[in-house]
TrEMBL record:
CDD domains referenced in this protein's UniProt entry, alphabetically: HMG-box_TCF7-like (cd21996)
Domain of life: Eukaryota
Gene of this entry: Tcf7l1a
Annotated Gene Ontology cellular component terms: beta-catenin-TCF complex; chromatin
Gene3D superfamilies documented for this protein: High mobility group box domain (1.10.30.10)
Location (main, coarse): nucleus
Name by which UniProt lists this protein: T7L1A factor
DNA-binding span(s): 62-130
Length: 135
């Protein structure tokens, strides 16, 4: 018999993978509706932590530029999925990792160059961006 009863395990949230991890392309945070009437706060003009948090939610989420391996994965994932009967992301990632390590330095250099260009473009588009902005 199991130590955990099935009614204790919560069902997966809507929009999430059964593992509970959101899809990586979903990057915009969920913005809650604010009441239409202005609230009178005793603090006056000073911003409360809640107001600061809501301003942060409105900012667009800027992703880090992809590194060489991520660019390789992005390009090769469809090919690996087509070749294999596996549908689990972790298994596909393992195959892609093994293939990446089996590439020669010259073959990997193509992706390192693409990654360099992507970082350069990212820094031109978002000159003040820092990875810390996402945390």
């Amino acid at each position: 018999s199991s130590r955990f009863s099935p009614h204790v395990v919560p069902p997966p949230a809507h929009g999430l993978h059964p593992s509970g991890i959101p899809h990586p392309t979903i990057v915009s945070p969920i913005v809650k509706q604010e009441p239409s009437q202005p609230s009178s706060s005793p603090a006056g003009s000073s911003k409360s932590p809640v107001a600061v948090k809501k301003e942060e939610e409105k900012k667009p989420h800027i992703k880090k530029p992809l590194n060489a391996f991520m660019l390789y994965m992005k390009e090769m994932r469809a090919k690996v999925v087509a070749e294999c009967t596996l549908k689990e992301s972790a298994a596909i990632n393992q195959i892609l990792g093994r293939r990446w390590h089996s590439l020669s330095r010259e073959e990997q250099a193509k992706y390192y160059e693409l990654a360099r260009k992507e970082r350069q473009l990212h820094s031109q588009l978002y000159p003040t961006w820092s990875a810390r902005d996402n945390y």
